[in-house]
Amino acid sequence: MRLLRFGLHAYGPFNETELDLSGPARGGLHVIFGLNEAGKSTALRAVSALLFGMGERTVDAHSHPARDLKLQALVEEGARQLTFVRRKRRKDSLRTLADEPLSEAELAPFLHGVDAAVFHSLFGLDHERLKLGGQALLNGQGDIGESLFDAGTGGAGIHAVLSDLERESDALFKVRAAKPSLNAAVTEFKAAKKKSRDEVRLPEKYLEQLGAVERAKVRRRELALERAQLGRQQERIDRILATQPGVLRRQQCKNDLAKLGNVPHLPEDVTTERREAQQLLSECARDIERSEREIQRRRHELAELPPETEIVELAKQTFDELRDKVGIHRKAARDLPNVRGQIKQAETDALRILVRMGKPADLDAAEALRLDTARIAKIRRLARERGVLFQRQQSAGERLEHAEQELLEKRRALEALGPKLDPLGLQAALREVRGLGAIEQRLSELRQALASEQQRSDELRRRVFTGAVASAAKAATLRLFPDLPAASPDAGALPPELEVIEASLVELEALDAARAQVEVELARAEREQAEAERHMHTIERQGGVPSERELAESRDRRGVGFSELLQASRDGTLSHAGIADYETLVRAADEVADRLRREATRVAELAQWTVMFEHWQTRKGELARERSAAQKARSVFDRRWRGAWQGVPAELRSPREMLAWRRRFDELEAANASVARLEREQAELASERAACLRRLKQELAGAVEGRGAVEGWGAVEGVSASALVEMATAALHAIEQAELQRRTLSLEVQQLVTSVERETQTLRVSAPPLAVWQEAWAEAVLPLGLGSEPGTDEVLALLDDSVELARKLDELPHNRRRVAGMERDARAFEAALAPLVARYAPELERLPVDEAAERLAERYQTAVQERQTRSRLSAELDERTAELANQRQRQAQLLARVRALLERSQATDLNELERLEGQWRAARELATRLHELEDQLIAQGGGLSLEQMVSEATASEPAALRVEREELRSRLEETEKAAHEVAIEIDRLERGLEYYTDETAAHAAQQQEQRAAQVRELLERYLRVRLGRTLLEREIGRYRERHQGPVLSRASELFQRLTLARYRGLRVGQEERTLGCVRADGDEVGVAQLSEGTQYQLYLALRLATLEHYVKDGASIPLVFDDALIHFDDDRAAAAFGVLGELADRVQILYFTHLSRDLRLSEQAVSPAVLRHHRLAATRGASSEIGARP
Amino acid sequence: MRLVHAADLHIDSPLLGLERYEGAPVDQIRRATRRATENLVELCIDERAELLVLAGDLYDDDWRDYSTGLFFAAQMARLKDAGIRVVWIRGNHDAASKITRHLRLSDNVRELSTKRAESVVYEDIGVAVHGMGYPSPSVDGSLVEGYPAPCSGLFNVGLLHTAVDGRPGHARYAPCSVSQLVNKGYEYWALGHVHTREVLHQDPWVVFPGNLQGRHMRETGPKGATLIHTEGLKVVSVEHRVLDVVRWIKVPVDVTAARDLDQVLSAVEGALSQATQAADDRLLAVRVELTGTAPCHAAIVTEHDQLLAEVRRLGLEVGALGAWVERLFVRTSAAYDRSALALREDALGALLAAFQALRDDPQSLAELGESLAEVRQKIPQELWHDADGVAYDSPELLRELLDDVEAMIVPRIVSSEEGR
Predict the structure, then answer these.
(1) Smaller CB count within 10 Å for chain A: N or C?
(2) What distance in Å separates the CA atoms of residue A140 and residue A692, rounded to the nearest whole number?
(3) Are strands A1149-1153 and A29-33 parallel, antiparallel or unpaired?
(4) Strand-by-strand arrangement of the A94-95 sheet
(5) Inter-chain contact A999–B67, Cβ cutoff 8 Å?
(6) pLDDT tens by residue, A704-750
(7) B386 chain-A contacts, CB cut-off 8 A
(8) Dihedral sign computed on CA atoms, order A243, A246, A251, A252
(9) Residue A924: burial class (beta carbons within 10 Å; 0-12, 13-18, 19+)
């Protein structure tokens, strides 16, 4: 199949781009050139996408949406053609031009069963794959089978696959190792199996254990019985030993009871009753005695009290009032002198104030001077208002006067300023002159630059024009710079242009390089020829080598001999000698033929080296001619070079040196132009500066004239520029200051006029209120009698005295009323006390009233207390007397109760009763004790009757019983110990039974099974890897055996061609395992010793040989290369193109390249009949196809 | 009357083929057969069954650990406490079992004779159970003829351990035909031996309940016992009750649409999740089988180990108890056309042709098997065969392995081609 047209309508960067691949009638080699980024690799992917569909994740959907990607092609297979479109679809991606789905089956016959994988492996080749193929060869150390297999599968790196399998296999299993997974798993399985076996609990063992448990339990029951029996015996002895003391005590008890004889039965509570009666009688006697004592003491106290007096009959209220009045009377006597003193002081103060007020010292008349409160307040208010009114009027007057004075001064100053001047003209001129700073700066820079450029120009000039041409330098300079003053007409010619010199330099270098290359190649040809000759000699030294020519000649001789023999036969001259000669000739020919066959390799090698020798001989001749031509070309160049510099005032040297000279010359030219430009600029700036200064002078002169003679303003003519600027600046400042002062003064005058008007108005407004105040003031102070216009301070002082006087006058009547009251109370108290003293205590009449009253009260108090004591004692006496009577009655009752008790107890008195009580109690205790003992014995007796117990106890000796009991105890201990041991044993055995119920064995079996599963899993993995490796190795061997002959033979030829016969071919190495490469000199090297480039060539040779093998029956699809020869030098690449050109006769080859070299080399190496060139450009909307090479 | 019919308890028989790996739910599969047996006892108690019939194979024949028997005895004692009677016969596994010989069971349990068929009649519940245990591990002749005639007026249950007329994967012991059983006149035939539940006939009922707990990948799906509800001589209902603890299941996952391993894993996760739900969140012992023409077939093959680890990790995460991934079977085919590759004249074509030739040549396969002698010597004998008992160096198994080998190698070669 081949592609006739291939349209990249929307794919990667392509847009409606089409390749016309219809060219050669059969396969054709299409070299498709595209610069990097032209979409070359995209186009290569596009071929795969076209034939086998676009991948799910194509990288070529960047310019067009994936849905819109579109490839179109016209393919041909024999007489059949098919036009189809490929879209990016999951389904139905193959379509007709009308965008109808097209079955893949329609395309299938064109593909010859090649799928995407095969296409990538066998029909697509780039330099990367060649490189990897080379590395695979190297890794395989040239294993012939692997190399062929690799080539046969598209360079899959079969060695890597085998290595992987080997590594995986070794990681899984090794015969004598422990670590690999399978080995380790087997070990673990065996351990798990052993554990599983060990953990099994066998039924026999369980039953045995169970039997032991049951036996132990029987023994435990026997021991229990024995222990019970011993226990019972021990209990009997214990019982006897325990009851023996009780039996004895019972008997003793009975004896004691008998001794007591008959004892009367007493009431249960007789003792209590008796003791209570005795205690109550005793208490009663004590109470009677105490009551009689108390009665006696009270009677004595009553007798001791004094007789009652009359005073006690008085009412208590009378004496309470008397006691209160004594206190009041005593306080009034203390206060009276103070109050009288206060009255005296107030009178003195009032008389002093009257004197201060200037009034008569008459307290009675003073009342008339008292002022009412409203008037006092009015006088104080008016006094406050007076200050404000008088102050306002006075201030307004002062301010008016001041403003009028200031207004006069400001008006005078304004007049003194003189007429107004306009500063605008002077300002503009001054600004202009100040702007000259930048010009001055620039002028300064220009001067420096000019000096620098001139220095550089001089320096360059010296470097350009040196030595012998120095004299011509000036002339040349003058000629070169015509704007300077002209001088000598004998100027030098202009040097050639820079481009001319550069072109000459390139030309010269090319000439020199070509010549050097010829020399190198000549030397190489010498070496190669010598090498070929050496090989030829080597082969020939090993013995004569037959050649085809020799065979032909030998056969010719045989043919001639036969003809002669035939002729002789016809002629009848056939002789034995002739026949023998012919036989000799036949043998010789056969021998040559045999040797040719036998020594085919040597023959081939000799032929090859002979061809090589002749090739290099021819090549040497060609190179000698090339060297001569190169020398001639150099002479022509030298002549042309000298002519170009004719007349130039420079020392002629090589083009490279003259190129540098010409560049310095250009620099000189540029420096001179720079000097001229700077000088022009300097002149223009100086002119501008002079005009500015002129304008400033004019403006300053006008200002001076308008202002008259001002200090510091001199005449403007004849001053320096800087002085002029200073003067102008001062003048402008003065004008501006004067204007500022004028505006300030005008403003102040306006403000002062306003102030004068305002204060005049204030004065006018404040006069009427003052008059009103004066009238009110006169009326208010009239009662003070101070004349017509008294001052406020005077009025206010008199007002304060008047108020103080009124206060003193108010104090006098109150104090006088208090003195009169006190005196009246003292008299009343004495009158009330006198009759009481006279009646109840005449002896106190001599004492002061208050003291007499106090004594009388004390006496009353004492009399009252004595009456109360007497009354209390009488009451207590009555109470005690009644109590005594009660006690005596109770005593009689108690005695009656004792008598009843004695009667009941059949006792004569309480002492006898007490003795009877003792006997009765002892008998009762013995009876109780007897009952207790018998109860105890019954309890201890274990069902025996008292009689049985008594008989048992009395029948045995305690000592013998104790011995017997000790023996029993010992036997019991032994039995218990044995029972305990049996119990432990049973526990142990039963716990042992639990061992038979755990699931360890099941768990261990499960684990064993997990290990088994692991072994099987690993084993299966190992077997897969192991079989894979075995079968792959076997198949590689078979493949080698099958294909080694034809493929290796063809690869050998191709390798020789691709290495330009540096290698003669390929050879299967020792034991037919490794691939050897036979050098031209016959030496054989391994793949590893090949240079990287040669490995590429070896791999290409193997690949092409395999491919040829594959497509030998003509069924093929296009073979696509992408820069596959990028690492080949030109010669080898040309050789490779030669081989591809031959293959292109059968297979369509698309060779994508970015090397223009490949266009040239393919053109040289490939027949025009099969070669087409295309140029690929990822331009949108344009056809990319270029004209094919005719 | 409620009757529970179970068989093939195989108590403490290990679960086979579960390779242990990091995180594998080891504890969860422990006691699986015991827990299933406990489930059976609880079913009897919960359903207030009057009778439990066990149609043989309580234990594995070569299993000698007595704790298994004690466990069974304890379970029977629980049934005794609940007033439930048990009748059982020995199957081929029990015949030679040392446990069976020595075990003493509670008096609610009645074992039928191994010498001749006998009947046990429970008048109180109106049931007669007829049957005979295996006297030896292999009973080649039919036993049905020797079974007693049905008891008139009682519900007759025939208890028999048999393969009937042959069942795949089961030894053909005590052969008989369904019609023989039907014609015997019993109301219900409680069969054992076949591990897959099967109802062979209705009215009268002939039922294999299957085993209680699946033990390997050939015993997939729900496992349990049969609950029969009768009224007089009439069977009212026959229900299968699921009692297994670990569910064996094959999970096919079609990865035709998966373009990379992530998508493969995503598909596996979905399938595992579905399977877990279907198993009511039981622990799964699962074999994942990848099928379909996968675009990422090469990655599946070349990165098998990593993929397996990821699938196992997914297994641990599904459902309440997770899944033990027994195997990851790759049954995908490559996107490339194998037959087209085989037709290629190049090395790969030759390789595929060689594989095919080897498959078709028993002699070569035998030679290939002989080349494995070295590894065979190192592997314990009982492991030198797969789960079906086929030796790894047999031509039969080698032929299968060749498919795997080809699936492993060709993608490596093709993928390294495509990778360039």
Answers:
(1) C
(2) 95
(3) parallel
(4) A14-20, A2-11, A70-77, A80-87, A94-95
(5) yes
(6) 666 554 555 556 666 677 777 888 888 788 778 878 888 888 888 88
(7) 1016, 1020
(8) positive
(9) middle
**Interchain contact, A117 vs B354, CB within 8 Å:** no
DSSP code at position B260: S
What backbone phi and psi angles, to 5 degrees, belong to B48?
50, 45
**Per-residue pLDDT, A721:** 72
- Taking CB atoms and an 8 Å limit, are B354 and A1030 in contact across chains? no
Q: Under an 8 A CB cutoff, do B368 and A158 touch?
A: no
Alpha helices per DSSP H over B20-165: 26-29, 32-46, 66-81, 92-95, 98-102
Answer yes or no: do B404 and A1024 touch at CB < 8 A. yes
End-to-end CA, chain A? 23
- Interface check A178 vs B, CB under 8 A: no
The pLDDT, as a whole number, for residue B248 is: 96
What three-state secondary structure class fits A842?
helix
Among B245, B304, B376, B412, the strongest candidate for a mutation testing the A interface, having the largest count of A CBs within 10 A, is B412
> Which amino acid, one-letter code, is at B136?
S
Interface test with B, best of A1031, A1042, A1102, A1110 (most B CBs within 10 A): A1031
- State which residues of chain A have pLDDT below 50: 468-472, 474-476, 478-479, 481-491, 709, 1180-1190
- The answer to whether the Cβ–Cβ distance between A1002 and B34 falls below 8 Å is yes
Most confident of A259-268, A680-689, B194-203, B382-391: B194-203
Contact between chains at A183 and B378 (C-beta distance less than 8 A): yes
Tell me the pLDDT band of B38, cut-offs 50, 70 and 90. Answer: very high
Q: Grade residue B42 by pLDDT with cuts at 50, 70 and 90.
A: very high
Tell me the shortest Cα–Cα distance from B372 to chain A, in angstroms.
8
Q: Rounded to whole angstroms, how far apart are CA atoms A1006 and B36?
A: 16
Distance CA A695, CA A697 (A): 6
Amino acid at A186: V
Which of A1009, A1033, A1108, A1122 to mutate to test binding with chain B, by most B CBs within 10 Å of its CB? A1009
Inter-chain Cβ pairs, chain A and chain B, closer than 8 A:
228
Helical ranges in A781-848 per DSSP H: 792-840
For residue A141, the SS3 value is coil
Residue A763: which of A386, A407, A389, A406 has the closest Cα?
A: A389
Distance between CA atoms of B252 and A1181, rounded to whole angstroms?
A: 51
Q: For residue B270, give how far its alpha carbon lies from the nearest alpha carbon of chain A (Å).
A: 23
Residue B374's nearest CA partner among A1019, A181, A1015, A1012 is A1019
DSSP string for A248-262: HHHHHHHHHHHHH--
In this prediction, residues B84-91 reach a mean pLDDT of 96
Structure token digits, residue A950: 């008594």
Which is nearest to B6 in space by CA: B217, B219, B239?
A: B239
Residues of chain B contacting residue A1042, judged by C-beta atoms under 8 Å apart: 350
- Enumerate residues 6+ apart whose C-beta is below 8 A from A540: A606
A1023–B30 CB contact, under 8 Å: no
- Structure tokens belonging to residue A879: 């109470």
Instruction: Inspect the interface and report whether the beta carbons of B340 and A1010 lie closer than 8 Å.
Output: no
Please enumerate in sequence order all residues whose Cβ is within 8 A of that of A166, keeping only pairs 6 or more positions apart, or say none: A1029
Interior angle at CA B326, CA B16 and CA B323, nearest 5: 110
| Dihedral Cα A366, A368, A369, A371, nearest 10 deg | 140
CB contact under 8 A, B405 and A160: no
CA dist A1110 and A1119 (Å) reads 12
What is the C-alpha to C-alpha distance for residues B392 and B365, in angstroms, rounded to an integer?
11
